[in-house]
Amino acid sequence: MSLIGISPPAAPGASQKDLRPRTYWMAAVASLAFLVLTVRLYQLQILRGDEYKERADENFVKELRVPADRGFILDRNHRILVDSRPSYDVTLTPYFCGKQCDDILSQLATLLSLSQDEVERAEDRLHDARGLERFRPFTVKVDIAREELDIIEANRVPGALSGVDVIPAPHRSYRYGSWGSHLFGYMNEVGADELKKANEEIEQRSDGQLPYQLGDYIGRRGLEKRWESRLRGIDGRRRVVVDAKGNAKGGELEDLIPEGQRFEPSRPGQNLVLSIDWRLQEFAEKMFPATAGSVLAMDAKTGFLLALVDRPAPDPNKLSGRITRAELQAIRTDPLRPELFRAIQEHYHPGSTFKVVTSIAALEEGVLKPGGTIYCPGHYTLGRHRWRCDKERGHGSVDLEHALGASCDVFYYSLGDRLGADRISKWASLLGLGKPTGFDLGGEISGVNPDEAWHDKHIPGGFQHGMSLNLAIGQGDVNVTPMQQVVLYGALASGIVWRPQVVQRIEDPNGETVQEFGPIERGRLPIKKETREQVMKGLMAAVNEPFGTAYGSRLKDIVVDGEPVTMAGKTGTAQVVKLGAKRLKAAQVSYFERDHAWFASFAPADDPEIVVLVLNEHSGFGSSNAAPTAAAVVRYYFELKRADALERAGVPVGPPPPPGVPHGGEKAPPVRAVPRTLDQPAPVPGAEGEKRGA
């Protein structure tokens, strides 16, 4: 039987013969490679070993950061408010100064006139540098003067100031000093304790930003902190060949660094475009006579802020530099607390501005009927206690319009007696009080909206019914922030409880929009149409009727679309200390015992566009120390609006009149701030004969 398709077995050793030529070739290639490597190693290590050893000992590649320009902060018209200016920092790299570091630091202290704080800070950095940290430069002095730059360069002769570099570094410039300081915030060095957290956040974002190093600056407070990641930008890199002393060596040695790795340009940060109109801000700053307080202007139709004055405030240019401990201590021990952002971080008794809340509560709860009246004899008695009205002779029989307009305390004592603390607190909460407004800059407090349970928990002896009377006129334990007040009156103006905002959009360095922000509603005004109409009559009367507490600040000659503009609002005078048996004028008491002056307003009353809130701390009456500023700001807003409309139409028009000549060429009465000597009485313009409850 034969087998078909089966090959006979190969002869022994045939496969080995086929592989043998391949093995020879592989061995030859490997031998040649080893030969070339051996020759090259002999050349480098034996023939030119000393030469390359000298180069390795004497030359390093040093990497220098190229700081990115931080993004601008602009107003709504693209006016630059905060930018960066060119400057120079002096740095020291511990490795390159070697054993001479202490001597070099001593030289720098003399050449740059370093303060004791700066010397101690540099010594700490120098002595803490270990391992690879010795190759990282640290900042000895920021933002040196031109003459200091010349001195350093003149002393950088070969062998001197080893490891010292002068680095171009943009530094923050707040163009208007302390104006807008609390809004903008400031910058200073990132601390060692926060470095890890900050860099973890960068790693999570994965947006290309480089980690922070000790000596880097970071946003503190305000917009600088809130939008740090958008404003910061991305630093570049410059790599240079240096010798063992850190001195740059050019020429052919630059070829040791590939051309593509020698320089990486920095990328600027993004710009913030605010809703603030700096023309209005500047006007409000100049017209506000207060030593301490706030002026807020808000767009009634969007909730975006148009102006935000908050004083006192430190100069962020100073805080963003190397401030001494003594200077910082002076700021922190100032009794006026200039670091406090009053608009959102301090609360006050609202005084009579709170009467709109009591009015709404009474109407909505059926305690007061539309058109109902209450008789005011000049006082209100409950049990053995008597509460005084602002008008000692009394207002007689008054309805809501007259009570709100003339600020009759007895009318509201009566409503408080009928409502009780719980129902007043309920409506205050529905109107947005007792909780943060959501203004997105951090540190906002809630204020205090006390009900009976709150009093039982916080007040010795617990709740007493008479406390409701104090709450009804905005005294007692109710407290509000200026931001809550402007939101409250904005809700009365528009029917919407807005979340206040100040950043309209974010732009890239070329001006292209990256992100835009729209209005945010927190809720709707939860009241009947009839209730709002009743309250509006009172707010109109307060400004436009002769019996109104703000009648002297009414708008007289502003016309829009052929119709006169009317302003609605409410004055408030919030007690700081308990009233004595005898009424005293503001000039007769020390600064910190004087009442706070409030005025909350909006215009036009029939279709509100702007809401203005003024708080003048420790100044006296709202009618004379807050309302005039608000009226001037409202007037200037409409003058700016008219000028802008004419400009868009191509009609030549001069600028609106400057502060001091607010309208019609008529010189405004002079305003005076409270003197800086806080414990001495001081005259308050217009306080003579005015009503305490106004």
What this model shows, in words?
The protein is of the alpha+beta class and 694 residues long. Among the domains are: 57-86 and 172-269, Penicillin-binding protein 2a (Domain 2); 88-169; 275-326 and 335-341 and 550-694, 2-Layer Sandwich (Beta-Lactamase), CATH 3.30.450. 35% of the residues lie in helices and 18% in strands. It contains 23 helices and 27 strands. The protein has a six-stranded mixed β-sheet, with no helix packed on it. The protein has a five-stranded antiparallel β-sheet with strand order 14-13-27-26-25, with helices on both faces. The protein has a three-stranded antiparallel β-sheet with strand order 1-10-11. A hairpin with a 2-residue loop joins strand 16 (379-382) and strand 17 (385-388). Helix 15 packs across helix 17 (409-430). The longest helix has 34 residues, at 14-47. The model is unreliable at 1-5 and 660-693 (pLDDT under 50).
Spatial gap, N to C terminus: 130 Å
Q: Number of DSSP helices?
A: 23
Percentage of residues in strands = 15-25%
Largest sheet entry: 6 strands, mixed
CATH architecture of the domain at 275-326 and 335-341 and 550-694, by name, is: 2-Layer Sandwich
Helix content: 25-40%
Secondary structure tally: strands: 27
Structural class: alpha+beta
Briefly note the CATH topology name of the domain at 275-326 and 335-341 and 550-694.
Answer: Beta-Lactamase
